[in-house]
## 1
Amino acid sequence: MPAAGDKRRRAPCYNTGSALPAAVSRSPAAPGFARHSGGIIMADQTLSNSADKLILVVDDEKGIREFLEILMRREGFRVETAGDGAEALEKARSVSPDLILLDLMLPKSGGYEVVHELQQGDGTGDIPVLIITGRYMDRSTSDIIRQEPNVRDFIAKPIKIEALAARIHQLLKTRPPTQRPGR
């Protein structure tokens, strides 16, 4: 428990629901745990280096694609990009990404079609996909897409940077870089 008058923000402890001071990166009270800037605390022993992971960013809007590429590089990941569904499928087959950030509304082949094609392909069926969309979907549509085995989550536009970074690190079991470029 914090001392009376302690106004430090408290971050939830991953998998336990308990809270630790957000300022703590290592603590004797929480051995083996590290704090992510997004507020998630994860055990160090199971985390790999984000530089070992490749993310494929797929969005037809160049500005969003470049924004996501910069964000993923800042988090230490290697990044490939694609501007449409056909290019996304081609790159997924050639570079075997560890994760795909996929917009649903794409030219040539829509995001939903990309998800289905990935599942049918050799070596692409197990690639996790985070759907990023600004499109409103009713509950039944989102439930149908969520049933796809490789779809892990939906991220709504506008994108909350910290939440997206934390979710990706959680999915890929990586640790964020201690020094981010540009800081």
## 2
Amino acid sequence: SPRTQREWEHKERIREMAEAHGRHLTEIQARNRELEKQREEIHRRLWEFSSKDQSPSHVEQMLLELKAQEEKNQGALDALKEQLKLMQTDTVYPLQKKEEKVLFNPPTAGGNGSLSYEISALRLAYLQGGGNDPVILAQMYDLQMEAQILERKRKQELPHRALDAELLAVELENQRLEDEILKLKLQRERKKADDVILLSLGGTSHILKEKKKKILRKPPPYNKTNKPIPGWRKKSLPGTVPKEIILELLFIFPWGGAPGSWEYPPRAGFVIFYDFLLGLDTTLSLVRLVAGLYNNGQEMGKPTPLPAVYCEMGRAFQYVTDGHKGNYATLSTKQPVPSRVRPSSSISLVLELQAAGGFDPYGREIQRLVSRGWAKVDIFDQHNQVISGRWKVPVRALPVKPSLSTGQLNGVPQ
């Protein structure tokens, strides 16, 4: 990544600076040894001058000049060593140190305070003091060139640091915007789900009010003891189902495909199409399914109520009723399975059948949706593949028990 590349380049620059610093220290030590030799040579020459009966005043003046030059050279070399240490420290810790004042004072007046200028002033002072050693002059020239290279690198690093700070700020802002967009999407999806539930419940109430005069039957007459009149035919009770109610549904992939087990990509998802409810009691007027996903009997998310539909008389085509007696309901509803569902053979679809119609034990008409039965459908096989195709599922008697296995479910009456 770009950040890793920049860190690697920064470490390489630090290593190069450390090696250059080590070379500089070695050269400074060599320079110190050369100055020691020059001092010994000066003492030797002074001894020779004194042995030749030179004027004491002349010898003393020469000695003072040489000592002054020696102190000047020694001070310049110490200042150069300190400046190199400061540059190395500032390079190793570029993000932890703030701007600091330059601690080194040039040996001569003027200049911009840079290391290269200090080395140039030192070289000039050496030449003015009578120095003419080519080795020392070459070393000073090399030091001056390396100092100029280091200063150029430092000037080039400043824009990169500013650019890194700007990129970091942009990345943080992008992350904040992405979090806000995700929150808005979740709120919108939650609002849509709530609207669907409210619309289905409100639509059911409106449909019942508009259609009850045409479909629902009149309740039986009552006597003063609040009991049905003898001889009146008793209707089906809530919580009971006919002998056999069949639910037809279909698992569909977005990309199509023949029925059978298909490998399930979680990012694509699939769709459940609810077709018909067959074998309904003739007293039922309105039905609705409530669908929910379960994993080992544990509910996965909030159940989804499907739109309520009216029951129709069993006079449809043979391929619809398939020989089942009673009324039927055309569901014709699609339900997408969320892409976040991971394939597992323990995941199943549990459907609760709610219906309105019929009479309670006291002969009063049931005008609201109440639970009448339930069904369970396995979605994935043992290989975690979706069992695609058309299914006819029997509706079981209450209560709802999502934890039952397929073998146990066969023992529940229809």
## 3
Amino acid sequence: MSGLGSSDDVEWEQKDSAATYRNTWQIAVYFHKSDNLCILDSKEGMNITLQPSSFGIVAGSPVLHAFNDEAKFAPMNGPRKHIKIKGTGKFLAYSSKKPKEIMLIGEKVEFEWSSNGTLSFEVPWIGGKLSDAIISIS
């Protein structure tokens, strides 16, 4: 099965806090199976094909000028540079610039950043509590 998807297909108005995202210029889109992150203009469509008896998970987040006019950022789980994370595993975001540092639970952490904007780091399990992450871009 194949189809065309765009940000217009997202029901942004399900939450009042997300309704303003409908007018965002760019969307970061993450394809789970291929571990691929790309940036699309908000009205740009993307072709999606599913093989028989398979599925695909696609996540999207508005690209924001969260730090300054030059640095763009789109966390795949919330639109802030000071982020509270619950759970464990790989944190994934789009960042147009390489972060200077990332602090997680008050300590610097190793992170991966590539020129296509993919930013990731591991979040440890801390007994179900929230982890504070601060992403600094200079």
